[in-house]
Amino acid sequence: MPKPVYTTTRNLQLYAGLFLSPFVLLFAVSVFYLVHAPPSAPAPAPAPPTRAAAGVPVSLALETLSPPDQVAALRPVLATLGAPGEINFIRRLPKEHRLIVPVLLPGSETTVDLDLVARTATITLRPTGFADALVHLHKMPGPHNVALRGNSPYMRLWRYLADATSYGVLFLSLSGLYLWAVLRAERRLGLALLAAGALTCCGLLYALTV
């Protein structure tokens, strides 16, 4: 094997691994919060602070828009109400001409209740904590409500970082196999560990899917 190829691959794996390690650590730690729910229900929290706003620039036309167009129309409205973040979904109450819009940031959730006739809004801020923030970043952007996902700048940036982390981990795995394959002294032990890992993974997949 040409030495420049080996050296370049080794250096790329080292520096890419160092760069990606904080992101991999975040995903790894958030799995524990995602998989292991609290053993008991938390104590009732005090009522979250609520504030009201009048003269909100909304109209009944919002009810007739498609979800992506609603998001685009609501973004400047939410900015004037001081509710930045990712719009999670839009709940319509057509009989009351109201829209309920949960807006998410890592560690907090703001619920905006818009009255399209009175042009008023009720804004409720609920802190969700550090663990919820990690779970939020782990799951978002996800497969649910794909028409709305990535509607805030920070979530679009996080989407790119999550993709980059996935591609980086794939590169580290493949380059690690390549670097192991060229080290003759480590081939036998590495092959045994690789086979054991593959058999364990396939066995778990079979047990879970059959």
Structure, explained:
The protein has helices at 3-35, 67-80, 129-139, 153-181, 187-209, and strands at residues 50-54, 86-87, 91-93, 98-105, 108-115, 120-127. With 210 residues, it is an alpha+beta fold. The protein has two domains: 3-37 and 159-209, no CATH class; 50-129, no CATH class. Strands 1, 2, 3, 4, 5 and 6 form a six-stranded antiparallel sheet that branches. α1 (3-35) crosses α3. The longest helix is centred in the first third of the chain and has 33 residues, at 3-35.
Distance between the termini: 43 Å
Order of helices and strands: HEHEEEEEHHH
User: Structural class of the secondary elements?
Assistant: alpha+beta
Task: Give the overall shape.
Answer: elongated
Query: Main β-sheet: number of strands, strand sense, barrel status?
Result: 6 strands, antiparallel
Average predicted local confidence, pLDDT: 84
Helix percentage: 40-55%
The tally of beta strands, per DSSP, is 6
Number of domains: 2
Share of residues in strands? 15-25%
